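Open question from group meeting: does this chain pack into something compact, or does most of it stay loose? Before anyone orders reagents, we agreed to write out a predicted structure and look at it together. Recording both the input and the output here so the notebook holds the full record.
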Amino acid sequence: MESEPTRPSALQDNLEYPPELVLHRGDMLVWAVDASGTLRYVDHVPNGKACGCFCPACREPLIARHGQILAHSFAHDSRAECRWAHEAILHHIAKHLIAKGGVFAVPPRHVVVRREGPIRPIVQETKSPAAIVRPDSVGLENILFKHRPDIVLGVGERRLLVEIAVRNKVRSEKRAQLTARGYAAVEIDLTRDRPETVGDLAAILFGDDSRKQWLVNGKLDLERERLEQACETAFEEQVREYAEREEAKRFARSPVAQLVRTVPADATRFRTPDGSLWIRFVASNEVLIVVEDGARDLLGELRMIATMRADNAFQVSKSTWVRLQRTYEATPE
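C-alpha cells returned:
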C-alpha cells in the first residue's frame, strides 16, 4: 500500500486543471464552487452574479468580477470577508488533485527524544522515509472546523485526515480530538510559504515536502514511547557510571589509596568474595592489612580487633591474619 514518493511532474500531466492556474491573487479569491459543488476558476465562469458560484466556506453567493483594469476575482455578494475562504478553496482543490492522481505522499516519520544525562547528553532518534499511500476514497468533511472542510482519505479500514493550514496551525486541543477519534492526520503548513499555482500545490501533495508534518500518528506515539524508555535506560546506566567515577575519585583522595600507592613490591594483593585488600609483613610476627575495596565484614572485624594505622589500614598479628584469611576466604592474586 505504501511506496517511495514519485516525481510530482509525472502526476501533474494528467490534472484536469492546468498546473499553471494560480491559486490566489494576494487576498483575492480566484476559485469558487458552483451549485453542484464543482470547483470553478474565475476566468471560466460568466461575469457577475450569473457565475452561479458560492464560497466553499460560508456558502454565501459570490460575484465574478471580470473588470477591464483589475485582475479577475470573486467577491462575496454581501461584500463581507470570509476568513476561511482561501483555506476551504485549497482543501477542495487538494481533494480534487488527490482523487485525480490516486495517491498522496505522507511525510517521513521522524522522532527525536533528548535528555540531559549526568555525564553526557542522551539522544535517541529514528526516522522512516516519506511514502506514497493509495487511498480507496477521498472526501471532504467538517471534522475539526465548522467552516473549513478537511480532506479525509480512506485507506483500507483506516482514515487519514489532511489539514491545510493557511492562517493558523492546528492547536493541541484539536489534535487531542483526532487522537480520541482514532484518526491519523497530516498537516500541510502554508502559513509562511503558500503555493502560487495548482502545479505548486500538486508538488506538495505528491512529493516529499518539509511543509508536511504528522499531526497524529499512532506509530509515532509507540516509537516515542520506545525511545523514551531507551533514554531512561541510558540515563540509569550513566547514573551508575557517574557514581563509579565519583567513588573512584573519592578513593583516590583517601588515605587508603595513599597507602596502596606506597605499598612496596613485596606486598601482596588478596581478593575476597566481596572486595580486595593488600597485606605486607612488617615485622617477624606482624602484618599490615589495607582494605582497598568492599570486604565490609572483614573491615568491621578489623576495626574491633586490630590496631588502626590509617583509615582502612590495620596491623594485626600473623596468627590473626591466618585466621582472617581463612574466615573471609582471602586468596592471593
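Observations to bring back to the group:
Confidence is low (pLDDT under 50) at residues 1-15.
The helical segments are 8-12, 85-101, 172-181, 198-206, 218-253, 255-262, 296-305, 318-327.
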